[in-house]
Design goal:
heterodimer; A: alpha+beta; Muramoyl-pentapeptide Carboxypeptidase, domain 2; globular; B: alpha+beta; 4-stranded antiparallel β-sheet; TRAPP_component (chain B); endoplasmic reticulum (chain B); golgi apparatus (chain B); Trafficking protein particle complex subunit BET3 (chain B)
Chain lengths: ~260, ~190
Amino acid sequence: MAQPPPRHATVLSLSNSNSNSNLSNASTAIDRPHSSQTHMPTPSTSSTGLRVPSNRKTIYDRHLNRSRNAELSRASFAFLFAEMVTYAQRRVTGIQDLERRLNEQGYPLGLRLLDLLFYRTVSGSTSSSLSSSSSTSASPPNRPLRILPLLHLIHGPLWRLLFNRPADALEHSVSPETPNEYMITDNDPLVNTYISVPKEMSMLNCAAFVAGMIEGVCDGCGFEAKVTAHNQPTEMWPSRTIFLLRFGESVMEREKVLERAGVK
Amino acid sequence: MSSTTKASRIGEELWKTRVDKVNAELVTLTYGTIVAQLCQDYDGNYPEVNKQLEKMGYNIGMRLIEDFLAKSNVGRCANFRETADMIAKVGFRIFLNIAPTVTNWTSDNNQFSLVFDENPLADFVELPDDGRAQDELWFSNILCGVLRGALEMVQMQVEAHFVSDVLRGDDTTEMRVSLIRYIEDEMPPEEE
């Protein structure tokens, strides 16, 4: 199996394809199937070699919020996700490898969901303040600069977008040795509802897919992080899952600088 | 009341009352990442990606039919025309909240087309601009497999393939479905 490109390369290639839609390197070929998820229509897109239907039924002609409140069958999701896991399982060497693969499949979704979230926050709640000339003070900064607002973004809006409810808990590591570790808890992850894990694989948590999305959101905001999903069952919540976020050193250093500068 | 109208009513009623829902974008994105992964694994060999998608769909269809029968509680269809309505107006409604149009029947009533006005799987999608994907990739090919798998479990061998897709620049998205044969009930082999 080909080694995946480093994460930052993926981010780069994405931002490239944002600014130059004629770009056609190998990585965009993988990204493109839904790269337009978050792209606003740009005039330059008409210069691509893609054919479009004459009735203009293209992504550029449909509103990004069209599917905002749309619903689909939970069974359909379960079938697709199960098939995705089964397919991945045939191509991996072990549990860790499988989780890595699921994580990688979630990662690009995180990047796109992030843009979608910001787009909707802006167009939804602050559109009025945008139209007025002085909107600097009223609306909160779009992208989180510090870790805590980022975590709240994941715990609240991201979870609500994906699962129609916020996550169940948000915690900071109590150990002085790991100040860079944060935990987001989901008592009953939707993605695991119809997954039954065989005994010999009891370590496996298929919510690694969601962990990948979180990682994509963090990276997309400029917070380098590793995110993993862990089983922490309780009597009441047998499929309780903890998403462990480990931020990189550069993030922690910047955090200190920003704190001194009084940035919230 | 025509069988189409009747099926539409059943489908809509079921969607409202019997179907657990999730956010549509989660499903759309998950399907997108599956196709993207296949394109990567098969190194842009789109015919192979089509084939894999069809296989995945077949696996899904074999299990999905049970969910369909349990939810819909419909009986056996009298003919293939009724089957087509049941697929388009009840099946697609339950699982994707759409109801493609059934059309273009052959005179022997063994072949029809499903024309999709909406396709949630392909929301937000643009195919890679590599000069090949628009000629070779059938993005929603998993649906062909779902039909084949599901119908096989109710004794119908069918073949399904897309003939056009708006993602390829066509004006419609159309799937062609052909009945090959009704599978006769076979007795399990006698134990020796």
